[in-house]
Amino acid sequence: MKKSKIYTLALVMMLSILGACTAPGENGTKAAINPDDPIVIGSFVDTEGGILGNMVLLALEAKGYTMTDKVQFGTPDVHRNALLQDELDIGIDYTGNGQYYSEGFEETVWGDVKEGYNSIKTYDEENNELVWLEPAKANNTEMLAVKKDFAEANSLTSLEDFATYVNNGGEVKFITSQLFAEKNMGLLGMEAGYGFKLEPDQLIMLPHGNTAETISALANGTDGVNVALVYGTDGSLPDLDLVVLKDPLSIPPVFEPSVVVRKEVLDKYPDIKAVIEDVFKTLDLENLQIMNKKVIVDGLSPKDVAKEHLTEKGFLD
Q1: CA geometry: angle 29, 31, 34, nearest 5 deg
Q2: Contact indicator for 244, 147 with CB cutoff of 8 Å
Q3: Which domain holds residue 297?
Q4: Cα 50 from Cα 303, distance rounded (Å)
Q5: What is the number of structural domains in the chain?
Q6: Could you identify which of 106, 137, 237, 255 might form a hypothetical disulfide with 96, taking C-beta atoms 3.0 to 4.6 angstroms apart as the criterion?
Q7: How many Cβ atoms from other residues are within 10 Å of residue 38's Cβ?
């Protein structure tokens, strides 16, 4: 009788192990497509990298792909080198970073949504056998932000509106990094493109680009600040009722998030392209701001935020 119980227990344990091997996704709904050839996914080490990387990880697992999780792998340079050295099969990057990875392109290319993406896509396919998938429509670039009530009171939704406000004598105290204030693909380009000019006494220039400090100054009205340099998907923007002013001319380079896949891996598993691109089609500036906020302000994990979004959009049960 005792020996029979031992055999039964051993059989149950063996079946459990076998079951785990055939169900790589968290939901256990798909048999493994590549059990002996896991796809290695990484991302930048920051919050947004964690969210986006986990979205791709969970979506592919739900489709039956065996994955190796290296989400939040490292800094952009470490992440890029890992893709080039075949340490990662899939990564998350931004189209505007193409200016640092390539050569032979005019600077203005990176300010155009389509040209910037097509340039790095073509360059990397021809030179590095890396494929950039269709990016999300969420430009995480340098932008100007104001308080929501200030925007409503002065009818501000874009830099065109801001130029009109400035030229009509509106009060401005803009906190920014010195680098952004002095470059053509920054404030100088905005002034030239939209036809306004900020005087030195309207600027507070910092020696760094830490947007946590600029956002705090704007939210608190420190030293009269009513305009601040931010990044488009900064997680604290919605929590503080701050809005970014649209930049129709795309003066700073466009930084839309995209998934980068080694060509060898994409050739082997071509169906992952549609899965990933369908996920990225659900992303925009506003929902990425909110997802970043859930991690930075509310304390949720990037994986939990990614799972919540995928579930809402029907990618997970």
Answers
A1: 130
A2: no
A3: 2-139+254-312
A4: 7
A5: 2
A6: 255
A7: 15
The residue ranges of the chain whose pLDDT is under 50 are 1-29
Do 165 and 240 belong to one domain?
A: yes
| Rounded-to-5 percentages of helix, strand, coil across the chain | 50, 15, 35
249 within domain boundaries = no
Dihedral sign of CA atoms 118, 56, 64, 282 in order? negative
Domain match, 288 and 224 both: no
User: Which residues have C-beta within 8 Å of that of residue 228, sequence separation ≥ 6?
Assistant: 144, 145, 146, 174, 175, 176, 211, 214, 215, 217, 218, 242
- In tens, the pLDDT along 147-191 reads 999 999 999 999 999 999 999 999 999 999 998 999 899 999 999
What does the alpha-carbon distance between residue 98 and residue 139 come to, in Å, rounded to a whole number? 14
What is the number of other CB atoms lying within 10 angstroms of the CB of residue 291?
24
The pTM for the full model equals: 0.81
pLDDT at 239: 85
Residue 236 main-chain phi, psi, to 5 deg: -85, -10
Distances in Å between the Cα of 150 and the Cα atoms of 106, 156, 221, 243 are 37, 8, 11, 10
116, 109 in Cβ contact below 8 A? yes
| Contact by Cβ (8 Å): 157, 246 | yes
Question: Measured between alpha carbons, how far is residue 80 from residues 36, 46, 75, 301 in Å?
Answer: 25, 14, 9, 24
Distance between CA atoms of residues 313 and 291, nearest Å:
14
pLDDT at 7: 42
71 and 213 inside one domain:
no
What is the 8-class DSSP label of residue 208?
S
